[in-house]
Amino acid sequence: MAEQQDDVPFYQKPEWADVVPIPQDDGPNPLVPIAYTREYSTTMDYFRAMCRAQEKSERALDLTKIVIELSPSHYTVWYYRQQLLKELNKDLKSELEWIEWMVNEHPKSYQIWHHRQVIVGRIAQSLFPSTTTTSSSTLSTAQSTEAAFAFDDLPEALKTTAQELVKSELEFIAESLKDDTKNYHAWSYRQWVLAHFGQGPWWTRELAYTEELLEEDVRNNSAWNQRYFVVTNGPGGLTEEDVQREVQFAKSKIEKTPSNESPWVYLTGVLRKGNHPVTEIKEFCEGLLSVTRANFSPFVHATLLDIYEIEAKEQRSAASVEKAKEEAIMLAEKVDSIRSKYWNWRKSQLQKIDVVA
Amino acid sequence: MNDETTVVDASAPELLLDQHVKYIQELDTKKNDLEYWLTEHLRVNGLYWGATALHILGHSDALDQEQIVEYLVKCQHDNGGFGGHIDHDPHILSTLSAVQILITYDRLDAIQVDKVVDYIASLQNEDGSFSGDSWGETDTRFIFCAINCLSLLKRLDDKRLDLQKTIDYVVRCRNFDGGFGSSPGGESHAAQVYVCVGTLTILGAMHHVDADQLGWWLSERQLKNGGLNGRPEKLEDVCYSWWVLSSLSMLKRTHWIDAPKLIRFILEAQDTETGGIADRPGNMPDVFHTVFGIAGLSLLGYPGLVAVDPVYCMPRHVIQRIGLTEKH
């Protein structure tokens, strides 16, 4: 544990002598008796006393750290800590260091990640003029793709500060992601950081970051999702040039791992967002059929099924219906039989298409 | 009760019903060291998981109802919200759990319903989302908790709410793969899909969902071993038997999952020594995976279980008793 100076529990120290600890009330017949170690139990008794009195002091702040380190998901203590940090006007930079340590210990704690967001949000608020009507009501640190600051409108000095802050947060998150590249909390917070400070240069760098991650693990669905987030929310949004580049990118990854769900879904997603018909990739898909391992990919056949189905409807072509049927049968019987009910349903839908032979 | 069906593979293990009942009754620290159950801030949630599982198993009397009600009353704060345990700050997660338990036991009379509504209404944000508590954390899970709870209390018509904004916000969380995340742009995840689809179902806004596309994404969660994962290329986990299945049920597409294979997977995750169900075969059981495994089995039509409502994750007869229109 950080900062444990000696082995004497805090509650045995003189500065705590005046506090009357409040024991746990489990009711007359405790339903789910929870075994406490004595230290934990006593610590919580003292915490309850502080909390009830809403004492705002250094020792209260110290106690919140002790409680958190014992029980990080105990959400009540986090709010109390935030209030204390504010009241006592504490240095938030050192708070960030402690949070980094805690995130390492408990990477999947909602509370720790949210605490980081609150602290960084506060740091930002103190540094930059806000563009949004962020009310003083504390209720919303809402996850949002809306920026709280108009980066472009900031004076140069503040632009630099913003970039530094964003950079250090992104580095912090990247470090955490090294241990678990799909940590949902980390990615969620990462999106907030990117969006919160407006349309700065970090968006372009983020695209390169997703590429690095996909080099390491092309099946990382979180990285694919992040890539979509970047190209659609970054400066300029999704341009035609972006669409072409992303289509090539996805195709190159598909060629390496044709049975990988993510690049397929990404590819069709980008095409749709860019108002391109999915039939555009027909040749690409048909080309994959002659590659044996690709031929066993459910996604090659599923995409061709979609394409032939669209063609059948648009051209009222019986030949296309037949080709689509073959794909559905291939999927139901050979390549993806666990989902045979779904593929057979798709096949049944094909019968309904109006054709002129 | 579910009818006799042919969904169970002859080679699948049997449901250790009595052992699960005993497991839940005996949930105390001497026998188990389960993070979810033992962590005091989750006590109310844990009670909901345990009570719901017992109801689905047909043993609604297995816990002392009076004790539970007395305990929950102590968890309600002046502002109407319920904490996760006595002396814990109110939170929307535990508020929903408390209300679900009380309605299941038909003891809503024991608490201040108006105040619960006040509390939830106070948590709605400008953009239509809901925060988990006055601390401000937002997540689509909290939207579902709010809407679910208000729906159970028949108070969705409260004038302080802007439900259209809530719908708009949830729609912003819809992704290019048809799924939903915890916030706009957040990766699609089966649990987030459940809470978003649940919200839209309750609010009558399912036309915003591409049922075929999402149904396919959900069916893709099934792996060769029969289990379900929550996102592409992640491991199977019994709790997804609920998140994925209930979503498919709301989309009227449960048949897109191979039921016998999934049933076998859930049953293999049972602990034959202690009872209870784990996240996957061979691991330690806990009450969270126990309830969602059992609820999943019920949705799949496993014989001998009480029918569960896919939207509320409560016994179907309870939802019918309180007069909520069947939305699925």
Automatic annotation (TrEMBL), chain A:
Q: Which Pfam families match?
A: PPTA
Q: Which GO terms describe its molecular function?
A: CAAX-protein geranylgeranyltransferase activity; protein farnesyltransferase activity
PROSITE patterns, per the entry: PFTA
**Keywords of this entry:** Magnesium, Prenyltransferase, Repeat, Transferase
Please give the cofactor(s) recorded in the UniProt entry for this protein: Mg(2+)
Q: What class of enzyme is it?
A: transferase
EC code(s) of this entry:
2.5.1.58, 2.5.1.59
**InterPro entries xrefs:** Prenyl_trans_a
Q: Which GO terms describe its cellular component?
A: CAAX-protein geranylgeranyltransferase complex; protein farnesyltransferase complex
Q: Does the keyword Magnesium apply?
A: yes
Family of this protein: Belongs to the protein prenyltransferase subunit alpha family.
Q: What is this protein called?
A: Protein farnesyltransferase/geranylgeranyltransferase type-1 subunit alpha
Organism whose genome encodes this protein: Linnemannia elongata AG-77
UniProtKB/TrEMBL annotation, chain B:
Which EC numbers does the record give? 2.5.1.60
Which cofactors, by name?
Zn(2+)
Molecular functions (GO terms): metal ion binding; Rab geranylgeranyltransferase activity
Q: Which UniProt keywords apply?
A: Metal-binding, Prenyltransferase, Repeat, Transferase, Zinc
Task: Show the Pfam families listed in the entry.
Answer: Prenyltrans
Tell me if Flavoprotein is a UniProt keyword of this record.
Answer: no
**Catalytic activity field:** geranylgeranyl diphosphate + L-cysteinyl-[protein] = S-geranylgeranyl-L-cysteinyl-[protein] + diphosphate
* Residue ranges of every copy of the Prenyltransferase alpha-alpha toroid domain listed in the record: 15-314
InterPro entries this protein is in? PGGT1B-like, Prenyltrans, Ptb1, Terpenoid_cyclase/PrenylTrfase
GO cellular component terms given for this protein: geranylgeranyltransferase-III complex; Rab-protein geranylgeranyltransferase complex
- Which domain of life, per UniProt? Eukaryota
Q: How is the cofactor bound?
A: Binds 1 zinc ion per subunit.
Name a biological process GO annotation: endoplasmic reticulum to Golgi vesicle-mediated transport
**Record carries keyword Repeat:** yes
| Function according to Swiss-Prot or TrEMBL | Catalyzes the transfer of a geranylgeranyl moiety from geranylgeranyl diphosphate to both cysteines of proteins with the C-terminal sequence -XXCC, -XCXC and -CCXX.
The UniProt similarity line reads:
Belongs to the protein prenyltransferase subunit beta family.
> Under what name is this protein listed?
Geranylgeranyl transferase type-2 subunit beta
